[in-house]
Amino acid sequence: MKRAVLAAIIMLISICSKGQSADIDVYSDKQKKIVTIVYSSPSKMFLDIKVFNEIGETVYTGQINEEKGKCVKIIDLGQNSKGTYTIRMKNDSFTKLRSVDF
């Protein structure tokens, strides 16, 4: 089976940032405990990413700092225990939160 189909939760977020449109797609693979963030923007944008466990501890910190176009960030949470994780995606103009269950 294709990875995107295998136990994936697909959430599409449309955001507007300083008059420019950007998209964030978040895919989670429950069997492999992998989160894939696909971020696209018509101009260069910075995105700070943090993942928190159920008790608020930071289990991942990363960034997307790419030129315009599409960027893919894969986060492997396989070494973490089962539970609900909150993904915070933030820049100067917005903050978006998404939860995934593993």
The rounded distance between the terminal residues' Cα atoms is 19 Å
Molecular shape: globular
Fraction of residues in H or I helices: under 10%
% residues in beta strands: over 45%
Characterize the main sheet: 4 strands, antiparallel
Low-confidence stretches: 1-20
Q: What is the rounded Rg?
A: 13 Å
Category from helices, strands and their pairing: mainly beta
Just give the CATH class. Answer: Mainly Beta
User: How many discrete domains?
Assistant: 1
Number of helices: 0
Residue-averaged pLDDT, rounded?
A: 78
Order of helices and strands: EEEEEEEE
Spatially, the strands of the biggest sheet line up as 1-2-3-6
Descriptive notes:
- The structure is a single chain.
- This protein is an all-beta fold.
- The chain has one domain (8-101): Immunoglobulin-like, CATH 2.60.40.3080.
- It is 0% helix and 66% strand.
- The chain is built from no helices and 8 strands.
- The strands form 2 sheets. Strands 1-2-3-6 form a 4-stranded antiparallel β-sheet, with no helix packed on it. The chain has a 4-stranded antiparallel β-sheet with strand order 5-4-7-8, with no helix packed on it.
- β7 and β8 (95-101) form a beta hairpin.
- It is globular.
